[in-house]
Design goal:
By secondary structure, the protein is α+β, with helices and mostly antiparallel strands. About 25% of the residues lie in helices and about 25% in strands. Strand 16 and strand 17 form a beta hairpin.
């Protein structure tokens, strides 16, 4: 719930509009309603949820409750607000697309860093999907994925690189199946802090949302929490303080490479979410500090690029493979590290 939503909720309103209805799982353990909802609604803080409960915007089985109410199996939790839910219709926007391949069934685009893939909280316009619905008509949607036409997968806002987009229902289903079966070939290039002790290896560690901050994904090597995630990595270039690595994804979890590399102790260069926006390797000299800060300015994002994509064409059954060159900001920072290591 946003501050504006909470502000509006305290005003007199003739009508409330249901935004969320959550059926609690049959196996759910007893847990406070505010904690339960903060886990389910990543964009709503616990404090805002408590305010919403206080203002009568949250009901369980149709009844008002308090923040210390403990949800039970099969409870029905509803959240209502004074304004109607946002329409899932996407506004077409004339945003240029870098299309590297297109036919009647699909297209492959090279997304720039900084572009959000689909409309969501705080990013309703200017996304890849806003551009897609402008340039293409009647793109299919996955079930329960309204407002994201054509999308089979996604990459983070500040990650650059390749995405496949489905133009037909047939292509959507066939490509989704390949992602589900982990048969899609995907390689990324990343610049990470330090040099992994093993120059080539596999990270097979479960990942899940952090219990402290839902925006962050955490590695859970022990226990049952999280979903299995597998990343194969190889060091391409040892630059003493940082290294350029190639990652091949076997699974496709949210923030998989970013979280796995942090788990290995080698966060991505300038990845603020996972601690890579600090100097994690190197000297204390001011010259070095200035050099790193300058690299951060050149590459103001996590150093991650979706470099290649391979899949079986849904109609022709031909194996297609696409490559994308590193963007200029990424290449410039690598060049700077090469020069620094050579002359220092």
């Amino acid at each position: 719930m946003t501050d504006q939503e909470h502000e509006n909720s305290s005003e007199d309103s003739d009508e409330l509009f249901e935004h969320y209805r959550i059926q609690v799982d049959p196996g759910q353990s007893l847990i406070r309603i505010d904690k339960f909802l903060s886990d389910r609604l990543p964009n709503a803080s616990r404090n805002r949820i408590q305010n919403g409960i206080r203002d009568g915007l949250v009901k369980v089985n149709g009844l008002d409750i308090k923040s210390n109410y403990k949800v039970r199996p099969d409870d029905v939790v509803s959240i209502s607000l004074p304004q109607p839910p946002r329409d899932t219709d996407v506004v077409p926007e004339n945003i240029p697309l870098n299309i590297v391949y297109e036919d009647a069934e699909l297209l492959v685009v090279d997304k720039p860093a900084g572009m959000v893939v689909h409309p969501a909280y705080n990013n309703w316009t200017g996304t890849l999907v806003n551009a897609l619905v402008y340039h293409f008509q009647n793109l299919p949607e996955m079930p329960d994925n309204e407002g994201r036409p054509g999308l089979v997968h996604r990459i983070d806002k500040d990650t650059s690189g390749l995405l496949v987009i489905a133009k037909t229902e047939h292509a959507l289903n066939r490509l989704a199946r390949q992602f589900f079966d982990h048969s899609i070939e995907r390689t990324y290039q990343a610049l990470v802090w330090g040099v992994p002790e093993k120059l080539e290896g596999t990270v097979d560690v479960k990942l899940g949302r952090s219990l402290k901050d839902r925006r962050v994904v955490t590695a859970y090597p022990d226990g049952d929490y999280g979903k299995r995630a597998i990343t194969h990595y190889k060091v391409l270039q040892d630059l003493r303080y940082v290294s350029l690595i190639e990652c091949k994804l076997e699974t496709g979890r949210t923030h998989q490479i970013r979280a796995h590399m942090k788990y290995l102790g080698h966060p991505l260069f300038n990845d603020a979410t996972y601690g890579g926006d600090k100097i994690l390797k190197g000297t204390v000299f001011s010259k070095y500090k200035s050099f790193v800060q300058n690299c951060f300015k050149i590459l103001p994002r996590q150093a991650l690029h979706a470099q290649s994509l391979g899949f079986v064409h849904p109609a022709s059954k031909e194996l297609l493979h696409f490559n994308s060159t590193l963007p200029n900001d990424f290449k410039e920072v690598i060049d700077k590290w090469e020069n620094y290591v050579q002359y220092n």
